[in-house]
Amino acid sequence: MSAMGIGSGHHEVAGAAHGAAAEHGAAGAHGEGHAAVWLRRLFASFWQSNVFFLGVSAVGTVFVAINTVAYAGWSIMVRRIAEAFSAWILPGGILLLALFVGADLLGGGHNLLFHWRTEGIMEEGHPNYDAIIAGKSGFLNLGFYIGRMIAFVGIWWFFSERLRKLSLAEDQMGGTGFWDKSINVSAMFLVLYAVSSSISAWDWVMSIDTHWFSTMFGWYVFASWWVSGIAGILLTAIYLKQAGYLRWLNANHLHDLGKLMFGFSIFWTYVWFSQFMLIWYANLPEEAVYFNQRLGGFDGKYTWLFFFNLIINFAFPFLVLMTRDAKRQIIMLKIVAMAVLIGHWLDFYMMVMPGTMQGDSGFIIEIGTGLLFLGTFLWLMTSRLAKAPLVPINHPFVEESVHHTT
Amino acid sequence: MTKRYALGIFEDEDVLLHAIENVRAAGVKIYDVFSPYPVHGIDDALGIERSRLPIAAFFYGLCGLSFALWMQIYMLGFDWPMIIGGKPHIGLPAFIPVSFELTVLFTAHGMMITFFLISKLWPRWKVPVMDVRSTDDKFVMAIELKEGTDLGNLTQLLRANGASEVNEKEMTKE
Questions:
Q1: Is residue B106 assigned to a domain?
Q2: Torsion, CA A299, CA A302, CA A304, CA A308, rounded to 10
Q3: Domain range holding B61?
Q4: Do B39 and B75 belong together in one domain?
Q5: At what angle do helices A251-282 and A330-357 cross, to 10 degrees?
Q6: DSSP B77
């Protein structure tokens, strides 16, 4: 298998599986002839950062919803931070749609990001025809894809706003009625999110490598989003605490957030490994090509990142946050939360880049784009955070949260 | 050896927690507190140091991991090499699940055995029960009565801090 795919991406392997793809399946299918490399890099890095930040943003609402249906009291202290995260959902969703349409229009028949949008790839008899991709046309077609995108982002946005409004109204009027209502809203949201997060991972990330598929992928992407979201909430809470706000927040709340970050770093690794080991063991060409590209493909371009991904997202949080004392120390939590955020941004880099850019990706444009998104996300998040009291003062569990011990 | 204890009986965990703080602040040493269920914050209130069991657990885990890796590498790599699924003899990804399981097994059993030994919980060990109602709905605070302890003062202190009754109990330990 080491002879296959190296340096040429998935097209050649797919070509071996079915002759029709060979015509368009050469290494340069996305290459020089169609769009400038810098333009493709820009779109790929925007797509990577946007999918990452959109997911982290939605995780804020998931965090609120899970804690609400679990009747959790401790998390009330950081609830407003999680609520503020959802400020990026709508702008991020609109940008996602714009990027997809833009990649379609600017690609000139070859979408800058998605192989399955290549002109004629699903038309029998067309020189670009690819029987395998044509077989997926029931799911991967323009109308359904855009419809799903709008529906998913719409659902996330609608429920985020609903929960936020209930919480703000509770600040004004008090009573337990708003909380009762938010339990129903949260439960409905979680059911819809469970389905939509999985399918959005197939749509926005997995369909880049159109021939390839993995049933673990939805969970893998969700785990990455979720642990990043927790790290983001933790980092924001520490920042506010050190700036003199959130005086009720103490080591016990940080300890619990640290436990979640520790635990879900392990969960991510579990999902990552479950996906990797089955593919490694079975070694079927159409599955193994995904790791073939990342482990030695493109002249070994992504190999170091493949292992660094595991070190920064598993070994580092696992070993550093193992003791109770570390989870209660701000400096340790800060370092690990930053490592987790950078690590999972790189994880999305690993998911998106080999499929879109083959060997042409770099780090200057990509890191710049990441910082641009970080700045915009923080700007929207903090301005939403500033619009309401930092602690939902009338929440029925606020007293419990103040006296939380671990 | 026979020891005498004063037992303060409490009806409510919040009252108990405040009572523990006040009694300790008054300079009285509490022998132990018995409760029907774990009470949040009671360790801190009683000034009990944190267990060092997690440190032992880490090393049990390390033993399990090392043993699992050694076992698989030695058996499949050196002692009886076999080709399985065309993979290298020492194919680390295939060893991870077993290594994980043995790490958990060693950690769990090591912790359990250490905990039992430290707590002296072996077969036929008799556990002194101060007041059987602490297994039902009452919280019992036991204070050892040494020679010269003023039971009257102690009773007053416990009553003032919300004890519903104060009893005296003799315990014999072999």
A1: yes
A2: -170
A3: 53-118
A4: no
A5: 30
A6: I
| Model confidence, pTM | 0.87
Q: How many independent structural domains does chain B possess?
A: 2
pLDDT, one tens digit per residue, over B110-135 is: 999 999 998 888 887 777 788 889 88
Among A388, A397, A295, A212, smallest CA distance to B93 is for A295
CB pair distance less than 8 Å for A281 and B41: no
Same domain? B42 vs B59:
no
State the smallest CA–CA distance between residue A273 and chain B in angstroms. Answer: 9
Are B150 and B162 part of one and the same domain?
yes
Distance from CA of B50 to the nearest CA of A (A): 10
Tokens representing residue A228 in the block? 């990043």
A263: Cβ contacts below 8 Å, ≥ 6 apart: none
Is A322 an 8 Å CB contact of chain B? yes
Classify the C-alpha dihedral A336-A271-A1-A362 as positive or negative.
negative
Beta-carbon separation of A405 and B40 below 8 A: yes
The answer to whether residue B41 neighbours chain A at the CB level (below 8 Å) is: yes
User: Per-residue DSSP letters for A111-155?
Assistant: -SS-GGGSTTTTSTTSTT--HHHHTTTTTS-HHHHHHHHHHHHHH
Of B41, B50, B85, the CB nearest to A281: B85
Taking residue A324's Cβ as centre, other Cβ atoms within 10 Å add up to 14
Report d(CA B70, CA B80) in Å as an integer.
14
Q: What pLDDT digit, counting tens, does each position of A47-87 carry?
A: 999 999 999 999 999 999 999 999 999 999 999 999 999 99
Helices and strands in chain B: count of H runs, count of E runs: 5, 4
For residue B26, give the CATH number of its domain.
3.30.70
Torsion of CA B21, B27, B31, B37, to 10 degrees: -10
Burial category of B36 from C-beta neighbours within 10 Å (exposed 0-12, middle 13-18, buried 19 and up): middle
Nearest to A145 by CA among A193, A215, A199, A192: A199
Do A405 and B54 lie within an 8 Å CB cutoff? no
Q: Same structural domain for residues B58 and B41?
A: no
Bridge partner list, A268: none
Q: Which pLDDT does position B1 carry in this prediction? A: 73
Residues of chain A with pLDDT under 50: 1-33
Q: What is the Cα–Cα distance from A21 to A1, expressed in whole angstroms?
A: 19
Under 8 Å between Cβ of A74 and A403: no
